[in-house]
From TrEMBL, chain B:
One of its GO terms (molecular function) is oxidoreductase activity. Keywords: Oxidoreductase. It comes from Shimia litoralis. Residues 5-315 form the FAD/NAD(P)-binding domain. The lineage of its organism: Bacteria, Pseudomonadati, Pseudomonadota, Alphaproteobacteria, Rhodobacterales. This is FAD-binding protein. The keyword Iron does not apply. It comes from the Bacteria. Gene3D superfamilies: BFD-like [2Fe-2S]-binding domain, FAD/NAD(P)-binding domain. InterPro entries: BFD-like_2Fe2S-bd_dom_sf, FAD/NAD-bd_sf, FAD/NAD-binding_dom, Metab_Enz_Cyan_OpOx_G3PDH, Opine_Oxase_asu/HCN_bsu, SoxA_A3. Residues 378-453 form the SoxA A3 domain. The keyword 4Fe-4S does not apply. It holds the Pfam family Pyr_redox_2. PANTHER family: ANAEROBIC GLYCEROL-3-PHOSPHATE DEHYDROGENASE SUBUNIT B.
Length: 107, 458
Protein backbone atom coordinates (compact mmCIF):
# COMPACT_ATOMS: atom_id res chain seq x y z
CA UNK A 1 0.00 0.00 0.00
CA UNK A 2 1.17 3.50 -0.75
CA UNK A 3 1.90 5.02 2.64
CA UNK A 4 4.18 7.91 1.79
CA UNK A 5 2.81 11.33 1.09
CA UNK A 6 2.73 12.43 -2.53
CA UNK A 7 4.63 15.49 -1.39
CA UNK A 8 8.07 16.04 -0.05
CA UNK A 9 8.65 18.72 2.59
CA UNK A 10 11.66 20.95 2.00
CA UNK A 11 13.54 21.56 5.21
CA UNK A 12 15.10 24.98 5.07
CA UNK A 13 15.45 26.57 8.44
CA UNK A 14 13.35 26.22 11.53
CA UNK A 15 9.63 26.56 11.77
CA UNK A 16 7.02 26.70 14.47
CA UNK A 17 5.14 23.43 14.55
CA UNK A 18 1.83 22.35 16.02
CA UNK A 19 0.56 18.93 17.13
CA UNK A 20 -2.44 17.46 15.39
CA UNK A 21 -4.45 14.31 15.36
CA UNK A 22 -5.37 12.98 11.94
CA UNK A 23 -7.83 10.08 12.04
CA UNK A 24 -6.57 9.17 15.51
CA UNK A 25 -2.87 9.34 14.66
CA UNK A 26 -0.70 11.93 16.41
CA UNK A 27 1.36 14.02 14.02
CA UNK A 28 2.59 17.55 13.56
CA UNK A 29 2.48 20.25 10.92
CA UNK A 30 3.97 23.66 10.33
CA UNK A 31 2.04 26.28 12.24
CA UNK A 32 1.33 28.13 8.99
CA UNK A 33 -0.02 25.10 7.08
CA UNK A 34 -3.62 24.96 6.02
CA UNK A 35 -5.41 21.85 7.25
CA UNK A 36 -5.48 20.60 3.63
CA UNK A 37 -1.70 21.01 3.27
CA UNK A 38 -1.16 19.19 6.58
CA UNK A 39 -3.37 16.33 5.37
CA UNK A 40 -1.50 16.02 2.07
CA UNK A 41 1.86 16.15 3.85
CA UNK A 42 0.68 13.47 6.29
CA UNK A 43 -0.19 10.82 3.71
CA UNK A 44 -1.86 9.82 0.48
CA UNK A 45 -5.09 8.41 1.96
CA UNK A 46 -8.48 9.80 0.92
CA UNK A 47 -9.70 12.52 3.27
CA UNK A 48 -13.33 12.22 2.28
CA UNK A 49 -15.63 9.86 0.44
CA UNK A 50 -18.46 11.22 -1.67
CA UNK A 51 -22.08 10.83 -0.68
CA UNK A 52 -23.31 9.45 -3.97
CA UNK A 53 -20.83 6.78 -5.07
CA UNK A 54 -18.60 6.62 -1.97
CA UNK A 55 -15.62 7.45 -4.15
CA UNK A 56 -12.40 8.61 -2.46
CA UNK A 57 -11.27 12.22 -2.64
CA UNK A 58 -8.37 14.33 -1.40
CA UNK A 59 -7.98 18.14 -1.38
CA UNK A 60 -7.93 19.29 -4.99
CA UNK A 61 -7.77 23.01 -5.84
CA UNK A 62 -6.19 24.32 -2.58
CA UNK A 63 -7.92 27.69 -3.05
CA UNK A 64 -11.53 27.30 -2.02
CA UNK A 65 -13.00 26.50 -5.43
CA UNK A 66 -13.86 22.77 -5.32
CA UNK A 67 -14.92 21.69 -1.80
CA UNK A 68 -13.22 18.32 -2.19
CA UNK A 69 -11.30 19.13 1.00
CA UNK A 70 -14.32 18.94 3.30
CA UNK A 71 -13.37 17.16 6.54
CA UNK A 72 -14.53 17.03 10.11
CA UNK A 73 -12.50 19.22 12.48
CA UNK A 74 -12.96 18.87 16.22
CA UNK A 75 -16.30 17.19 15.62
CA UNK A 76 -17.66 19.82 13.21
CA UNK A 77 -18.36 18.41 9.74
CA UNK A 78 -18.02 20.15 6.35
CA UNK A 79 -14.96 22.20 7.23
CA UNK A 80 -13.16 23.55 4.16
CA UNK A 81 -9.67 22.32 4.96
CA UNK A 82 -7.81 24.44 2.40
CA UNK A 83 -9.18 27.66 3.88
CA UNK A 84 -8.41 26.90 7.54
CA UNK A 85 -5.01 27.22 9.24
CA UNK A 86 -3.98 24.38 11.58
CA UNK A 87 -4.11 24.91 15.32
CA UNK A 88 -2.36 23.09 18.11
CA UNK A 89 -4.42 20.13 19.30
CA UNK A 90 -6.74 20.02 16.30
CA UNK A 91 -8.52 16.72 15.68
CA UNK A 92 -9.11 16.12 11.99
CA UNK A 93 -11.15 13.20 10.74
CA UNK A 94 -12.12 11.76 7.39
CA UNK A 95 -15.62 12.71 6.34
CA UNK A 96 -17.89 10.06 4.89
CA UNK A 97 -20.65 11.26 2.66
CA UNK A 98 -21.92 14.75 2.53
CA UNK A 99 -23.81 16.78 5.10
CA UNK A 100 -25.88 19.74 4.09
CA UNK A 101 -23.68 22.83 4.12
CA UNK A 102 -26.28 25.00 5.79
CA UNK A 103 -26.19 22.84 8.90
CA UNK A 104 -25.76 25.36 11.69
CA UNK A 105 -22.88 24.80 14.04
CA UNK A 106 -21.94 26.41 17.25
CA UNK A 107 -18.69 28.15 17.94
CA UNK B 1 -16.66 50.96 12.31
CA UNK B 2 -16.03 54.21 10.40
CA UNK B 3 -17.27 54.13 6.84
CA UNK B 4 -14.42 53.61 4.37
CA UNK B 5 -14.24 55.43 1.02
CA UNK B 6 -13.39 52.21 -0.78
CA UNK B 7 -13.73 48.50 -0.09
CA UNK B 8 -11.35 46.26 -2.03
CA UNK B 9 -12.01 42.53 -2.20
CA UNK B 10 -8.87 40.48 -2.78
CA UNK B 11 -5.26 41.18 -1.75
CA UNK B 12 -3.54 39.86 -4.87
CA UNK B 13 -1.50 42.06 -7.24
CA UNK B 14 -4.51 44.15 -8.36
CA UNK B 15 -6.02 44.58 -4.90
CA UNK B 16 -2.70 45.39 -3.21
CA UNK B 17 -1.67 47.94 -5.87
CA UNK B 18 -5.12 49.53 -5.80
CA UNK B 19 -5.11 49.73 -1.99
CA UNK B 20 -1.73 51.47 -1.87
CA UNK B 21 -2.63 53.88 -4.67
CA UNK B 22 -5.97 54.81 -3.12
CA UNK B 23 -4.45 55.15 0.36
CA UNK B 24 -1.69 57.42 -0.93
CA UNK B 25 -4.41 59.47 -2.62
CA UNK B 26 -6.01 60.00 0.77
CA UNK B 27 -8.85 57.46 0.63
CA UNK B 28 -9.74 55.29 3.60
CA UNK B 29 -9.51 51.73 2.31
CA UNK B 30 -10.89 48.48 3.66
CA UNK B 31 -9.07 45.53 2.11
CA UNK B 32 -10.89 42.22 2.58
CA UNK B 33 -9.06 39.02 1.73
CA UNK B 34 -9.82 35.37 2.44
CA UNK B 35 -6.21 34.35 3.09
CA UNK B 36 -4.29 34.72 6.36
CA UNK B 37 -1.71 36.97 4.65
CA UNK B 38 -1.67 39.29 1.63
CA UNK B 39 -0.34 38.18 -1.77
CA UNK B 40 -3.19 36.45 -3.57
CA UNK B 41 -2.39 33.12 -5.18
CA UNK B 42 0.45 34.44 -7.35
CA UNK B 43 2.37 35.91 -4.39
CA UNK B 44 0.89 33.53 -1.86
CA UNK B 45 2.68 33.55 1.50
CA UNK B 46 5.16 36.17 0.25
CA UNK B 47 5.11 38.04 3.56
CA UNK B 48 6.55 35.00 5.32
CA UNK B 49 8.71 33.54 2.55
CA UNK B 50 10.21 36.86 1.45
CA UNK B 51 13.04 35.95 -0.96
CA UNK B 52 14.01 32.67 0.74
CA UNK B 53 12.42 30.25 -1.74
CA UNK B 54 14.76 30.95 -4.62
CA UNK B 55 13.41 28.06 -6.73
CA UNK B 56 10.20 30.05 -7.19
CA UNK B 57 12.13 32.55 -9.31
CA UNK B 58 12.35 36.35 -9.52
CA UNK B 59 8.72 36.98 -10.53
CA UNK B 60 7.50 35.76 -7.15
CA UNK B 61 9.48 38.33 -5.16
CA UNK B 62 7.75 41.16 -7.04
CA UNK B 63 5.08 40.63 -4.41
CA UNK B 64 7.31 41.88 -1.56
CA UNK B 65 7.04 45.64 -2.21
CA UNK B 66 3.34 45.28 -3.00
CA UNK B 67 2.65 43.60 0.35
CA UNK B 68 4.93 46.03 2.23
CA UNK B 69 2.98 48.97 0.83
CA UNK B 70 -0.14 47.80 2.67
CA UNK B 71 1.41 49.03 5.90
CA UNK B 72 -0.32 52.41 5.58
CA UNK B 73 -2.49 54.28 8.09
CA UNK B 74 -5.31 54.57 5.54
CA UNK B 75 -5.50 50.82 4.91
CA UNK B 76 -7.38 48.37 7.11
CA UNK B 77 -6.44 44.89 5.92
CA UNK B 78 -8.92 42.27 7.14
CA UNK B 79 -7.24 38.88 6.64
CA UNK B 80 -9.35 35.72 6.56
CA UNK B 81 -12.51 37.50 5.40
CA UNK B 82 -14.67 35.44 3.02
CA UNK B 83 -16.97 37.80 1.10
CA UNK B 84 -20.29 36.12 0.41
CA UNK B 85 -22.51 38.89 -0.86
CA UNK B 86 -22.49 42.34 -2.45
CA UNK B 87 -25.83 44.12 -2.74
CA UNK B 88 -26.52 47.19 -4.83
CA UNK B 89 -26.25 49.84 -2.13
CA UNK B 90 -23.31 48.64 -2.31
CA UNK B 91 -22.84 46.78 0.94
CA UNK B 92 -20.31 43.97 1.27
CA UNK B 93 -21.08 41.00 3.52
CA UNK B 94 -18.27 38.83 4.75
CA UNK B 95 -17.61 36.01 7.18
CA UNK B 96 -14.65 36.20 9.55
CA UNK B 97 -13.90 33.54 12.19
CA UNK B 98 -17.46 32.23 12.08
CA UNK B 99 -19.11 35.66 12.36
CA UNK B 100 -20.59 37.71 9.56
CA UNK B 101 -20.28 41.45 9.06
CA UNK B 102 -21.79 43.95 6.63
CA UNK B 103 -19.91 47.05 5.57
CA UNK B 104 -20.86 49.84 3.17
CA UNK B 105 -18.81 52.16 0.97
CA UNK B 106 -19.66 54.21 -2.11
CA UNK B 107 -17.04 52.29 -4.08
CA UNK B 108 -16.28 48.58 -4.11
CA UNK B 109 -13.43 47.13 -6.16
CA UNK B 110 -13.68 43.41 -6.89
CA UNK B 111 -10.17 42.00 -7.39
CA UNK B 112 -10.77 38.35 -6.59
CA UNK B 113 -8.39 37.01 -9.21
CA UNK B 114 -8.67 33.78 -11.09
CA UNK B 115 -9.23 30.09 -10.62
CA UNK B 116 -7.76 27.32 -12.69
CA UNK B 117 -9.84 26.22 -15.63
CA UNK B 118 -11.40 22.89 -14.67
CA UNK B 119 -9.94 20.08 -16.79
CA UNK B 120 -12.39 17.18 -16.78
CA UNK B 121 -11.08 13.83 -18.04
CA UNK B 122 -11.71 10.22 -16.99
CA UNK B 123 -10.23 9.85 -13.51
CA UNK B 124 -9.75 13.55 -12.69
CA UNK B 125 -11.51 13.03 -9.36
CA UNK B 126 -9.03 10.39 -8.13
CA UNK B 127 -6.69 11.14 -5.23
CA UNK B 128 -3.39 12.18 -6.81
CA UNK B 129 -4.93 14.08 -9.70
CA UNK B 130 -4.77 17.80 -8.99
CA UNK B 131 -4.56 21.09 -10.82
CA UNK B 132 -0.91 22.04 -11.33
CA UNK B 133 -1.64 25.42 -9.74
CA UNK B 134 -2.76 23.64 -6.57
CA UNK B 135 0.65 21.97 -6.33
CA UNK B 136 2.25 25.36 -6.82
CA UNK B 137 0.15 26.76 -3.96
CA UNK B 138 1.55 23.94 -1.77
CA UNK B 139 5.08 24.92 -2.81
CA UNK B 140 4.47 28.53 -1.81
CA UNK B 141 2.36 28.05 1.28
CA UNK B 142 3.89 24.96 2.88
CA UNK B 143 7.20 24.27 1.18
CA UNK B 144 5.80 20.97 -0.13
CA UNK B 145 7.16 19.68 -3.43
CA UNK B 146 5.28 17.21 -5.64
CA UNK B 147 6.93 13.77 -5.87
CA UNK B 148 6.85 11.57 -8.98
CA UNK B 149 4.56 14.00 -10.75
CA UNK B 150 3.51 14.20 -14.38
CA UNK B 151 2.65 17.69 -15.59
CA UNK B 152 -0.15 17.46 -18.13
CA UNK B 153 -1.88 20.09 -20.24
CA UNK B 154 -0.88 23.44 -21.59
CA UNK B 155 -0.13 27.07 -20.82
CA UNK B 156 2.67 29.32 -19.56
CA UNK B 157 1.99 28.39 -15.91
CA UNK B 158 2.65 24.70 -16.65
CA UNK B 159 6.16 25.56 -17.87
CA UNK B 160 6.79 27.90 -14.96
CA UNK B 161 5.85 25.16 -12.49
CA UNK B 162 8.10 22.68 -14.33
CA UNK B 163 11.02 25.09 -13.97
CA UNK B 164 10.27 25.72 -10.30
CA UNK B 165 10.24 21.96 -9.67
CA UNK B 166 13.52 21.55 -11.54
CA UNK B 167 15.14 24.37 -9.56
CA UNK B 168 13.92 22.80 -6.32
CA UNK B 169 15.53 19.47 -7.25
CA UNK B 170 12.27 17.54 -7.75
CA UNK B 171 11.72 17.71 -11.53
CA UNK B 172 8.51 16.32 -13.03
CA UNK B 173 8.86 12.75 -14.33
CA UNK B 174 7.34 13.81 -17.66
CA UNK B 175 5.48 16.60 -19.40
CA UNK B 176 2.41 15.66 -21.40
CA UNK B 177 1.51 18.67 -23.52
CA UNK B 178 -1.75 19.17 -25.40
CA UNK B 179 -0.32 21.87 -27.62
CA UNK B 180 -0.44 20.98 -31.31
CA UNK B 181 1.59 22.39 -34.23
CA UNK B 182 -1.69 23.83 -35.58
CA UNK B 183 -2.12 25.92 -32.45
CA UNK B 184 1.35 27.35 -32.90
CA UNK B 185 0.57 28.10 -36.57
CA UNK B 186 -2.55 29.99 -35.56
CA UNK B 187 -0.57 31.90 -32.95
CA UNK B 188 2.09 33.09 -35.39
CA UNK B 189 -0.02 35.94 -36.76
CA UNK B 190 -0.13 37.43 -33.26
CA UNK B 191 3.64 37.30 -32.97
CA UNK B 192 4.49 40.78 -34.35
CA UNK B 193 2.33 42.41 -31.69
CA UNK B 194 3.62 40.05 -29.02
CA UNK B 195 7.14 41.26 -29.74
CA UNK B 196 6.18 44.53 -28.03
CA UNK B 197 6.73 42.51 -24.89
CA UNK B 198 10.08 41.06 -25.92
CA UNK B 199 11.16 40.59 -22.31
CA UNK B 200 8.29 38.22 -21.68
CA UNK B 201 9.11 36.20 -24.81
CA UNK B 202 12.73 35.84 -23.75
CA UNK B 203 11.63 34.68 -20.32
CA UNK B 204 9.41 32.07 -21.95
CA UNK B 205 12.22 30.82 -24.17
CA UNK B 206 14.58 30.63 -21.19
CA UNK B 207 12.05 28.44 -19.36
CA UNK B 208 11.80 26.07 -22.32
CA UNK B 209 15.60 25.84 -22.46
CA UNK B 210 15.75 24.88 -18.79
CA UNK B 211 13.16 22.15 -19.30
CA UNK B 212 15.10 20.81 -22.27
CA UNK B 213 18.39 20.92 -20.36
CA UNK B 214 16.83 18.92 -17.52
CA UNK B 215 16.04 16.18 -20.07
CA UNK B 216 12.48 15.77 -18.97
CA UNK B 217 10.61 13.39 -21.29
CA UNK B 218 8.06 15.43 -23.26
CA UNK B 219 5.04 14.23 -25.19
CA UNK B 220 3.30 16.73 -27.46
CA UNK B 221 -0.07 16.98 -29.22
CA UNK B 222 -1.35 14.72 -26.45
CA UNK B 223 -5.03 13.91 -26.01
CA UNK B 224 -7.45 11.31 -24.60
CA UNK B 225 -6.29 11.60 -20.98
CA UNK B 226 -7.32 8.89 -18.58
CA UNK B 227 -6.19 8.25 -15.01
CA UNK B 228 -6.69 5.00 -13.11
CA UNK B 229 -5.45 3.58 -9.85
CA UNK B 230 -3.08 0.67 -10.31
CA UNK B 231 -1.12 -0.92 -7.47
CA UNK B 232 -1.77 2.20 -5.42
CA UNK B 233 -0.11 4.42 -7.96
CA UNK B 234 -1.73 6.36 -10.77
CA UNK B 235 -1.67 4.93 -14.24
CA UNK B 236 -1.89 7.93 -16.56
CA UNK B 237 -2.92 7.03 -20.09
CA UNK B 238 -2.86 9.38 -23.08
CA UNK B 239 -2.29 9.37 -26.81
CA UNK B 240 0.51 11.33 -28.43
CA UNK B 241 1.26 11.24 -32.15
CA UNK B 242 -0.94 8.23 -32.72
CA UNK B 243 0.56 6.16 -29.94
CA UNK B 244 -1.01 5.28 -26.59
CA UNK B 245 1.24 5.75 -23.58
CA UNK B 246 0.98 4.75 -19.92
CA UNK B 247 2.91 6.53 -17.20
CA UNK B 248 3.10 5.32 -13.61
CA UNK B 249 3.18 8.22 -11.19
CA UNK B 250 2.07 9.46 -7.79
CA UNK B 251 0.58 12.70 -9.08
CA UNK B 252 -0.97 13.95 -12.30
CA UNK B 253 -0.88 17.74 -12.22
CA UNK B 254 -3.08 19.07 -14.98
CA UNK B 255 -3.46 22.60 -16.26
CA UNK B 256 -5.24 24.45 -19.07
CA UNK B 257 -4.80 28.06 -18.08
CA UNK B 258 -6.79 30.18 -15.69
CA UNK B 259 -10.19 31.87 -15.86
CA UNK B 260 -11.65 34.84 -13.97
CA UNK B 261 -13.31 33.93 -10.68
CA UNK B 262 -16.76 35.33 -11.46
CA UNK B 263 -19.03 34.10 -8.66
CA UNK B 264 -18.95 37.44 -6.88
CA UNK B 265 -19.24 39.61 -10.00
CA UNK B 266 -22.09 37.46 -11.34
CA UNK B 267 -24.02 37.40 -8.07
CA UNK B 268 -23.62 41.19 -7.83
CA UNK B 269 -25.51 41.53 -11.11
CA UNK B 270 -22.62 42.82 -13.21
CA UNK B 271 -23.16 41.93 -16.91
CA UNK B 272 -20.59 39.51 -18.36
CA UNK B 273 -19.33 38.87 -21.89
CA UNK B 274 -18.06 35.68 -23.47
CA UNK B 275 -14.39 36.00 -24.39
CA UNK B 276 -13.83 33.74 -27.36
CA UNK B 277 -10.04 33.58 -27.36
CA UNK B 278 -9.86 32.90 -23.61
CA UNK B 279 -12.92 30.62 -23.66
CA UNK B 280 -14.46 32.06 -20.51
CA UNK B 281 -16.77 34.82 -19.19
CA UNK B 282 -15.41 38.24 -18.31
CA UNK B 283 -17.30 40.86 -16.29
CA UNK B 284 -17.99 43.74 -18.66
CA UNK B 285 -16.01 46.88 -17.78
CA UNK B 286 -14.40 49.96 -19.32
CA UNK B 287 -10.64 50.56 -19.52
CA UNK B 288 -10.64 51.99 -15.99
CA UNK B 289 -12.47 49.01 -14.51
CA UNK B 290 -15.91 50.64 -14.17
CA UNK B 291 -18.85 48.21 -14.46
CA UNK B 292 -22.51 48.87 -15.31
CA UNK B 293 -23.33 48.64 -11.58
CA UNK B 294 -22.88 52.05 -9.91
CA UNK B 295 -19.98 51.95 -7.46
CA UNK B 296 -18.79 48.47 -8.49
CA UNK B 297 -15.37 48.19 -10.14
CA UNK B 298 -13.23 45.27 -11.29
CA UNK B 299 -9.45 44.93 -11.73
CA UNK B 300 -6.88 42.21 -12.23
CA UNK B 301 -7.48 38.68 -13.46
CA UNK B 302 -11.05 38.63 -12.15
CA UNK B 303 -11.75 41.22 -14.87
CA UNK B 304 -10.03 39.17 -17.63
CA UNK B 305 -6.84 37.14 -17.74
CA UNK B 306 -3.77 39.31 -18.34
CA UNK B 307 -1.37 38.09 -15.68
CA UNK B 308 0.12 39.55 -12.51
CA UNK B 309 2.03 42.51 -14.01
CA UNK B 310 -1.05 43.76 -15.82
CA UNK B 311 -3.17 43.14 -12.73
CA UNK B 312 -0.89 45.38 -10.69
CA UNK B 313 -1.07 48.07 -13.38
CA UNK B 314 -4.84 47.80 -13.62
CA UNK B 315 -5.09 48.11 -9.83
CA UNK B 316 -3.29 51.46 -10.04
CA UNK B 317 -5.42 52.66 -12.98
CA UNK B 318 -8.71 51.72 -11.31
CA UNK B 319 -7.70 53.20 -7.95
CA UNK B 320 -6.87 56.52 -9.63
CA UNK B 321 -10.24 56.50 -11.37
CA UNK B 322 -11.93 55.87 -8.02
CA UNK B 323 -9.97 58.74 -6.40
CA UNK B 324 -11.26 61.02 -9.18
CA UNK B 325 -14.81 59.76 -8.60
CA UNK B 326 -14.63 60.31 -4.82
CA UNK B 327 -13.09 63.77 -5.15
CA UNK B 328 -15.25 64.83 -8.09
CA UNK B 329 -12.21 65.37 -10.31
CA UNK B 330 -12.28 65.15 -14.08
CA UNK B 331 -11.41 61.56 -15.12
CA UNK B 332 -8.86 62.90 -17.64
CA UNK B 333 -6.64 63.84 -14.69
CA UNK B 334 -6.14 60.15 -13.93
CA UNK B 335 -4.80 59.38 -17.40
CA UNK B 336 -1.73 61.55 -16.75
CA UNK B 337 -0.96 59.94 -13.41
CA UNK B 338 -1.46 56.56 -15.02
CA UNK B 339 0.95 56.82 -17.96
CA UNK B 340 3.37 54.31 -16.45
CA UNK B 341 0.68 51.80 -15.47
CA UNK B 342 -1.06 52.07 -18.83
CA UNK B 343 2.22 51.28 -20.53
CA UNK B 344 2.58 48.13 -18.42
CA UNK B 345 -0.96 47.00 -19.09
CA UNK B 346 -0.63 47.57 -22.84
CA UNK B 347 2.50 45.47 -22.94
CA UNK B 348 0.76 42.58 -21.18
CA UNK B 349 -2.17 42.92 -23.57
CA UNK B 350 0.18 42.79 -26.55
CA UNK B 351 1.41 39.29 -25.78
CA UNK B 352 -1.89 37.86 -24.56
CA UNK B 353 -3.45 37.13 -27.99
CA UNK B 354 -0.35 35.13 -28.87
CA UNK B 355 -0.47 33.14 -25.63
CA UNK B 356 -4.24 32.53 -25.92
CA UNK B 357 -3.78 31.07 -29.41
CA UNK B 358 -0.55 29.16 -28.76
CA UNK B 359 -1.95 27.45 -25.65
CA UNK B 360 -5.54 27.08 -26.82
CA UNK B 361 -7.95 24.87 -24.89
CA UNK B 362 -8.28 21.47 -26.61
CA UNK B 363 -11.91 20.79 -27.62
CA UNK B 364 -12.06 17.49 -25.68
CA UNK B 365 -11.75 19.45 -22.42
CA UNK B 366 -14.89 21.40 -23.32
CA UNK B 367 -16.97 18.45 -24.46
CA UNK B 368 -15.50 15.33 -22.87
CA UNK B 369 -16.59 11.73 -23.51
CA UNK B 370 -19.75 10.38 -21.84
CA UNK B 371 -18.06 8.57 -18.93
CA UNK B 372 -16.25 11.71 -17.71
CA UNK B 373 -17.51 13.34 -14.53
CA UNK B 374 -18.28 17.04 -15.08
CA UNK B 375 -19.74 17.94 -11.70
CA UNK B 376 -17.37 16.74 -8.98
CA UNK B 377 -19.80 17.53 -6.16
CA UNK B 378 -22.88 15.75 -7.47
CA UNK B 379 -20.93 13.25 -9.60
CA UNK B 380 -22.77 14.01 -12.84
CA UNK B 381 -21.18 12.70 -16.04
CA UNK B 382 -21.05 14.24 -19.49
CA UNK B 383 -23.25 11.33 -20.64
CA UNK B 384 -26.01 12.29 -18.19
CA UNK B 385 -25.95 15.85 -19.51
CA UNK B 386 -26.07 14.70 -23.15
CA UNK B 387 -29.03 12.48 -22.27
CA UNK B 388 -30.85 15.36 -20.54
CA UNK B 389 -30.34 17.56 -23.60
CA UNK B 390 -31.53 14.74 -25.81
CA UNK B 391 -34.62 14.50 -23.57
CA UNK B 392 -35.44 18.13 -24.25
CA UNK B 393 -33.43 20.38 -21.91
CA UNK B 394 -32.53 23.54 -23.85
CA UNK B 395 -31.45 25.92 -21.09
CA UNK B 396 -28.85 25.78 -18.33
CA UNK B 397 -31.52 25.94 -15.62
CA UNK B 398 -33.34 22.97 -17.18
CA UNK B 399 -30.15 20.94 -16.88
CA UNK B 400 -29.68 21.98 -13.27
CA UNK B 401 -33.20 20.93 -12.29
CA UNK B 402 -33.07 17.74 -14.32
CA UNK B 403 -29.69 16.51 -13.08
CA UNK B 404 -28.64 18.65 -10.05
CA UNK B 405 -25.45 19.59 -11.91
CA UNK B 406 -23.79 22.62 -10.33
CA UNK B 407 -26.00 22.47 -7.23
CA UNK B 408 -23.35 21.06 -4.87
CA UNK B 409 -21.19 22.98 -2.42
CA UNK B 410 -18.78 24.38 -5.06
CA UNK B 411 -21.77 26.08 -6.69
CA UNK B 412 -20.63 25.21 -10.19
CA UNK B 413 -17.07 26.52 -9.92
CA UNK B 414 -15.79 23.21 -11.31
CA UNK B 415 -18.52 22.49 -13.89
CA UNK B 416 -20.16 25.75 -15.05
CA UNK B 417 -17.89 26.11 -18.06
CA UNK B 418 -18.14 22.47 -19.16
CA UNK B 419 -21.91 22.61 -18.81
CA UNK B 420 -22.16 25.74 -20.93
CA UNK B 421 -19.88 24.26 -23.59
CA UNK B 422 -21.81 21.01 -23.68
CA UNK B 423 -25.18 22.74 -24.08
CA UNK B 424 -23.83 24.99 -26.83
CA UNK B 425 -22.26 22.07 -28.67
CA UNK B 426 -25.25 19.73 -28.37
CA UNK B 427 -27.79 22.38 -29.41
CA UNK B 428 -25.46 23.94 -32.00
CA UNK B 429 -25.72 27.42 -30.60
CA UNK B 430 -22.95 29.94 -29.98
CA UNK B 431 -22.00 30.06 -26.29
CA UNK B 432 -22.93 33.72 -26.00
CA UNK B 433 -26.57 32.84 -26.70
CA UNK B 434 -26.59 29.90 -24.26
CA UNK B 435 -25.80 32.48 -21.59
CA UNK B 436 -24.01 32.39 -18.33
CA UNK B 437 -25.11 30.27 -15.39
CA UNK B 438 -26.43 32.30 -12.46
CA UNK B 439 -24.49 32.71 -9.27
CA UNK B 440 -26.44 33.43 -6.12
CA UNK B 441 -25.31 34.72 -2.77
CA UNK B 442 -24.09 33.51 -0.41
CA UNK B 443 -21.27 32.65 -2.83
CA UNK B 444 -19.18 31.28 0.06
CA UNK B 445 -20.30 28.74 2.65
CA UNK B 446 -21.92 30.52 5.56
CA UNK B 447 -24.25 28.90 8.07
CA UNK B 448 -27.86 30.01 8.46
CA UNK B 449 -27.09 30.69 12.13
CA UNK B 450 -24.39 33.15 11.09
CA UNK B 451 -26.72 34.99 8.73
CA UNK B 452 -29.45 35.14 11.36
CA UNK B 453 -27.03 36.52 13.98
CA UNK B 454 -25.97 39.26 11.57
CA UNK B 455 -29.52 40.35 10.89
CA UNK B 456 -30.18 40.65 14.61
CA UNK B 457 -27.19 42.84 15.32
CA UNK B 458 -27.85 45.10 12.36
S1 LIG C 1 -9.23 21.94 -1.97
FE1 LIG C 1 -10.70 22.89 -3.26
S2 LIG C 1 -11.95 23.93 -1.86
FE2 LIG C 1 -10.41 23.13 -0.61
Amino acid sequence: MMTDSRFFRRENGTYDTVCLQIDGVQTHARATDTVAAALLAFGPAPTRTTGISQSPRTPFCMMGACFDCLVTIDGRPNQQACMITVQDGMCITHQAGFRPLEEPHDG
Amino acid sequence: MAKPDLIIIGAGPAGMAAAATAANGGLKVHLLDDQPAAGGQVYRNITRNQDRLTHLGPEYTKGIPLADALDHPNITHVAGAAVWRIDDTPTVWYSLHGKSHAIHADHVLIATGAQERPVPFAGWTLPGVMPAGAAQILMKSSDLLPKDAVLAGSGPLLYLIAVQMIEAGQPPVAMVETQTPQMMMRAVRHLPRALLDRQQIFKGLAMLRKIRAARIPRYTAAHSFKAQIQDDLLDFEFTSKGETHHLKCALVLSHQGIIPATHLTRSAGIPHKWHKAQQCWHPDHDTEGRTARPGLWVAGDSAGILGADAARAQGVITANAIICAVRGLRPSIASHVNAHAINHRNRAQAIRAFLDAAYAVPPEINTPPDDTILCRCEEITAGTIRQAIHDGATELRHLKTATRIGMGPCQGRQCDLSLTHMLAAQTQRPIATVGMPRARSPVRPVSLGEIAALEQTD
